[in-house]
Amino acid sequence: MDHTVNATDHGTGHGTGHGGTPPAAEPPPGCPAHAGGAAAVRLSGLEYQQTPSELYRALRREHGPVAPVLLDGGIPAWLVLGYAEVTHVTAHDELFARDSRRWNQWPAIPADWPLLPFVGHQPSVLFTEGAEHQRRAGVITQALEGLDQFELAQWCREIADQLIDGFAGGGRAELMSSYAHALPMRAAVRMCGMPAGGDDTEDLVTDLRISLDTQDGDDPVAAYVRVQERIQRLVREKRAAPGPDVTSRMLTHPAGLTDVEIVQDLISVIAAAQQPTGNWIGNALRLMLTDDRFALNVSGGRLSVGQALNEVLWLDTPTQNFIGRWAVRDTTLGGRRIRAGDCLVLGLAAANTDPQIWPEGHVGAENSAHLSFGNGEHRCPYPAPLLADSVARTAIETLLERLPDVVLAAEPEELTWRPSIWMRGLTSLPVRFTPVTA
C-alpha cells in the first residue's frame, strides 16, 4: 500500500501530540538537518517540480543514497534515494515501521501542517503493523480478488467510450482532466458500489485530489473531512443493502472489521485506484505522444501500450516519493546514523533510476523489478497492481482505437508537471485529432 494516500482526522490528532506548537526555527542537533555537517535540502521549488531527476542526481553526489531533507515548515527527515536502501527499509519492519506516532518531530508540527493528511495517525491499514496489518491487508486482498479482471476491463471500456464521446466531436481535448483522472475514479467508484455520475461522486473526486495533492488555495483538512463523510455514508448504505462490490465484501469478511476501520481502508483503496492510476495513464500517454519509438511505422506497428506503461513506472513513476517509515530504534542506513523516531521518505522515483542498478547510465524498462508499487509487507496488496494495469491499459488502448490520429497539441517542452514532490503527473495534456461523431 506504499503508494496510497495516508489520511488523517485533523481535528483530533488521535493522541499524536501535534497540537498548535509552531515549527522550530532551527532543527535540534543530531537530527537529519544537521547530518554530517551538510545542509539539508528543501523538498520544494520549481527544480523539483519540473526536473526532479536532476535534483536526485545532485543529492546522490552530495549525500550518497540517504540524504537529509527538510519538509514543509523546515521539518527534518531523511530521503532514501538508493534502490538497495529503499528495499532494505521496506523489507525490515522491525527497524523501519509504519506507525507515525513514533515520530520524534511531533512537538514541532503545527495543527495546520499541510502534510498531516500523509502522516497523521489513523486507524487505517496504512499505519498498522505485524499481525494487525496482515489481518487488515488480507481483507482488502480478498475483497479485490472478488473483482473479475475481464469485467473490470469491460467497465473501463464503457467508461472510456462515454468520456471520449464527450470530446470526440470537437477535434481537441485536454486529457488529464477529461480522461486520465476521470476514468480510474469512475472505475473505483463502481467497484466499491457507489452510484456513478452523481454530484457527490464528482465532489469526492475533487476532494481526494485536494487531500492527496494540495495546490495553492486548497484546504486539505476540510477536503479530507468531506471524503471521510462520503465514505461513511457508503458504508452505512452497504451495511443495509450489500451488493457484489468491494465495500460489501469488506463488510462481510470474517475478520469482522469495524465501520471505522473499513472507512479508512476504503479511502486508501479508492485513492490508490484514482490518483496514481490517473497519473500513470497520463504519463504513459505523454510518452507515447512524444517518443518516436511509439509512433506508427510504415508497417502499422508501434511499441506496445504495455511497454509504455512499464517504462513509465521506471522513469516517471506516478508516486515519486512516499512518506514514510519511522525508525524503531537507533540504526544506520546508507552510512547515515538514523535515530529512533526519525522519519524516512521513500524516494521511489530516485530508487528506480539508481545508477547502481543501471550501469553506464542506461535505464531500461524491460523488467518489472521497479519499486513503484512498493515493496515488502506494505506493498500494494495483490491483485491491486494487476487491476491498476487493467484500468490503465484499457484506457490507453481505447483512446488510441477511437482516435487513431491523436497527436500532441503543444510542443513537448511546453508540458508542465504538477507542483508536487509526492505525485508525478502533468498539469495538462492537450491533444488534437480528426473530429469523429459518437
TrEMBL record:
Record region (Disordered) = 1-36
Tell me which SUPFAM superfamilies the record gives: Cytochrome P450
Q: Which domain of life is it from?
A: Bacteria
Q: Which PANTHER family match?
A: CYTOCHROME P450 YJIB-RELATED (PTHR46696:SF1), P450, PUTATIVE (EUROFUNG)-RELATED (PTHR46696)
Family of the protein in this entry: Belongs to the cytochrome P450 family.
Indicate what this protein is called per its UniProt record. Cytochrome P450
Q: Species name for this entry?
A: Streptomyces yaizuensis
